[in-house]
Amino acid sequence: MNKLLSVHLLWLLVLFAPAHSIAQIQPIDKDTANVLPADTVLPGQKNPFTDAQRLEASNSRFLKRAVIPSAALVGAGILTIQGRGLISSFDTRDVRNRHFPNFSTEADDFIMLAPLVGLYGFNLISSQNRHELGRQTLLLGLSGVLASAVVWPVKGLTNIDRPNGKPHAFPSGHTTYAFTIATFMDKEFRHKSPWISVASYGIAGATGVMRVLNNAHWMADVLAGAGVGIISVNTVYWVHAKLTQGGGLNTTFVPVLLPGGAKGMAFTLAF
């Protein structure tokens, strides 16, 4: 639990470290994700959009590429909690106890952070990264904070014991953060090489498997954690695209007369 709390607090450090980059996020008038010129480079961005990145603010794309897959993973986790489902969490625990009864490693506490070494390494040796380092760190920090805001309350509400008897099993925090980092790497570097995405998701998957083999989590915890991590990053990038690409996020201020004759201002937000 202490290790997880340390990782949880790390997201806050990641978020607030590049505070100067927050001020750089400024909406760009008129243009939308579909009409931005191919050579457009927005504030905080290192290179022009790829075709996929130009559609980042699309609601339908967000639904198909992020919401549905994440909901499927979380749903699978809920349906396999403890003894539920065709292949339940109890079934996978029995397989673990039968074939890997003495498995024990602490690698799952650290391996999920491995892609971050690649993140900052790529920034040093490559000019093809999607965003500048400050913007990358901001997006990663926001994704981690959003994931934490989901995971920790749900752990308390569900109050499910782990296979080893310890509390707060569902969902898996390690797996959530592992898939948060993997999805972030996919967003930032897929255009550079799909193998970066494959390796990052492979590490995230290995983290989840080790949590089960370590008897620290049920299969359901891992499935739900993966879904939370994926949707957290995609939500941050989707909102970021609407804010920075312009047009997709529309704000209106309208003067209004309040009861009693006081003057006021109405604010509307639409996308």
UniProtKB/TrEMBL annotation:
It comes from Pontibacter qinzhouensis. It comes from the Bacteria. Residues 1-23 form the signal peptide. Residues 140-237 form the Phosphatidic acid phosphatase type 2/haloperoxidase domain. The chain crosses the membrane at residues 66-87, 137-154, 195-213, 219-239. Keywords: Membrane, Signal, Transmembrane, Transmembrane helix. InterPro entries: PAP2/HPO, PAP2/HPO_sf. This is Phosphatase PAP2 family protein. Coiled coil: none annotated.
